[in-house]
Design goal:
The structure is a single chain. The protein is of the alpha+beta class. It has helices at 5-22, 30-43, 46-66, 71-116, 167-184, 191-208, 298-301, 326-341, and strands at 123-124, 127-134, 145-152, 155-164, 219-227, 233-239, 245-248, 251-254, 283-286, 292-296, 349-356. It has two domains: 5-109; 119-356, Phosphatase 2c, domain 1 (4-Layer Sandwich), CATH 3.60.40. The protein has eight helices and eleven strands. A hairpin with a 2-residue loop joins strand 3 (145-152) and strand 4 (155-164).
Amino acid sequence: MVKAPWVLAACVLVAGGLLTAFAPKPYLGLPLLAASPLIAAAMLSFRFAVFFACAPVAAAAGLDLYRERSATSLLVDVAVVGLIGALALLVNVLMERQGRKLADARDVAEAVQMAVLPQPAAQVGSLAIAVGYTVAQAEARIGGDLFAVQDTAFGVRMIIGDVRGKGLQAIATVSVAIGAFRQEAEYAPDLSALAERMDDALSRDAGRSLEPGISPEEFTTALLAEVSAEGDVLRLLNRGHPGPYLVHEGQLTRLDAAVPQLPLGMGLAEIGPPVGSGHPVTEVLPLPLGATLLMVTDGVTEARNHEGVFYDPCRARLVGAHFENPESLVRALTADVQRWTEGAQQDDMAILAVSRRRHTSASP
């Protein structure tokens, strides 16, 4: 692979000139002379494209004179190479214009992403927090995964989720989910009530966006978590989302839901007794000092290698490693998934890591 695009264009130009000068038929080098400006137009700036559009014309004219070709042949060669060079410059201008439009669209998409999913604070109470977000298509800069962290009177509440939908409707659903979480996390007495209120908000939004008689096809998998004010108690409620992991002393333990539940936006919450019937759907676990709660979307757990094998964090290079902070864990996991897939990421990937710090400073 040629590192400098101008080297490739120059090599093609030189090869065309040599063929024109020494080949049995002078016109054998003409295709290469014409290809040089096309390569430059597709890969270089307008200034370089102008040079590689003019150089083949001069080369064709000079070499035809050197080989004493007729005036008609000279004019035909110069006209052909010159016309292709002019078309190459037009292509360069159009590509540059299209590139600016694409850059503007990506900037808008990134601004929307930052507005819908602002970065959480690096520390909330006794918790250190880090997030990572990677979209499957880098040009998009926006996807359907979501996360949020909020400090409330009940403790630090978090959500990570994945909207099962496409396009602008998925982004709208992400906005509704985050808005409902921000609003209800302050007032819902527990995670079950918070999930019910979010479920109602998403169901209403899905109903408003559909025509009468059409059932909604979009839903949102979500994992809700709450860490007590003291930082030692962890509560989890899983609504159809990949289970989180507890990272502690070099070990990764997957925390699967004991009671399977339906995703948000599908009406009733639970497969089995309904939410609010007294069935314990929220799981309570201890959160040791120095432990990290690692929450991911299925872009991590469903990442496949070239053999079609799914990525498993519990069998990855993360096991046995010690991380100074959640940010280093997020970076290591992102890099390991990219290594596993060899850069061929199939889905958006969101990561939320929350660590109980060993040393905390008193709040002012």
